[in-house]
TrEMBL record:
This is Amino acid ABC transporter substrate-binding protein. Residues 38-260 form the Ionotropic glutamate receptor C-terminal domain. Keywords: Signal. CDD domains: PBP2_Dsm1740. It comes from Stenotrophobium rhamnosiphilum. It comes from the Bacteria. One of its GO terms (molecular function) is ligand-gated monoatomic ion channel activity. Residues 1-19 form the signal peptide. Residues 38-260 form the Solute-binding protein family 3/N-terminal domain.
Length: 268
């Protein structure tokens, strides 16, 4: 009798495990993508060179090229879901798209809500200055003074860094990085705190309008985000990233968007 009960218990345990595995597979975004025949990628167009609009209004950039490659490997079509930054994680969690590819910094706070794949880019925060401060401000520390007003994009790590490292300066927050940078260019604020890639590109576009303090004063890892409880999707993204680095595709795209400037002529 004991052996019979033990065998039944083991059988029930195996059945429960199989049911759990089946349920997890059913809920996986990866299986939903393949069944739907469509990969939905969420981002906020405006973060150069990750995603931005060209002269025709199409969204282009480093993340877009990587997303196209993902969709090609999956054998599905790609749909870009342009989403305002402050609502982009809730949009992922409510299944508005399958993966968040908006150049998001991996933070412990965000990781409580979503899971991140392995980092795909390492960056840091830098500062755009109005030209009149070229001989006065040599470091981000020099801006930590009530005499100065700085700008940031609301809800970003640049916003967090501005408040953490420059608490004495006056802070103006904007919905987009373009607005924050434009405030510096127009002379209405003294500096704009944001990610190195965007600031470097902005200076290349406006060489006589702003000064770039290009030495990052933070270090940040960027990652793609997926909903929690989906190891299949996370595993696929990590393997995709590793493979694209091994075969040289990632390096080619990185050089195109981060080291090349040919794409600048296609912007608005």
């Amino acid at each position: 009798m004991k052996r019979l009960l033990l065998a039944m218990a083991m059988l029930l345990s195996v059945c429960a495990a199989q049911a759990a595995d089946s349920d997890m597979a059913e809920r996986s975004a990866l299986n939903a993508i393949l069944k739907r025949g469509e990969l939905r990628v969420g981002l906020d167009a405006g973060y150069m060179p990750f995603e931005m609009r060209d002269k025709k209004g199409d969204i282009i950039g480093f993340d877009i090229d990587l997303a196209r490659l993902m969709a090609r490997y999956m054998g599905v079509k790609l749909t870009i879901v342009n989403t305002q930054w402050d609502g982009i994680i809730p949009a992922l969690l409510t299944d508005k798209f399958d993966v968040l590819m908006g150049g998001m910094t991996i933070t412990p706070e965000r990781n409580l809500k979503v899971n991140f794949c392995d980092p795909y880019v390492l960056i840091g925060q830098t500062i755009l200055l109005r030209p009149g401060l070229k001989d006065t401000i040599k470091s981000y520390r020099d801006l930590n003074d009530p005499r100065y007003t700085i700008s940031s994009k609301l809800g970003t790590t640049g916003d967090i860094a501005a408040r953490r490292y420059l608490p004495k300066a006056k802070l103006k927050q904007y919905e987009s990085e373009s607005e924050g940078a434009m405030e510096v260019r127009s002379g209405r604020v003294d500096g704009f705190v944001y990610d190195l890639p965007f600031n470097a590109v902005y200076v290349a576009q406006n060489p006589d309008k702003v000064i770039h303090l290009k030495e990052p004063f933070t270090q940040e890892a960027l990652g793609w985000a997926v909903r929690k409880g989906d190891p299949d999707m996370l595993n696929w993204l990590n393997n995709f990233l590793a493979q694209s680095k091994r075969d040289g595709t990632y390096d080619a795209l990185y050089k195109k968007w981060f080291e090349g400037t040919a794409w600048l002529k296609n912007l608005k």
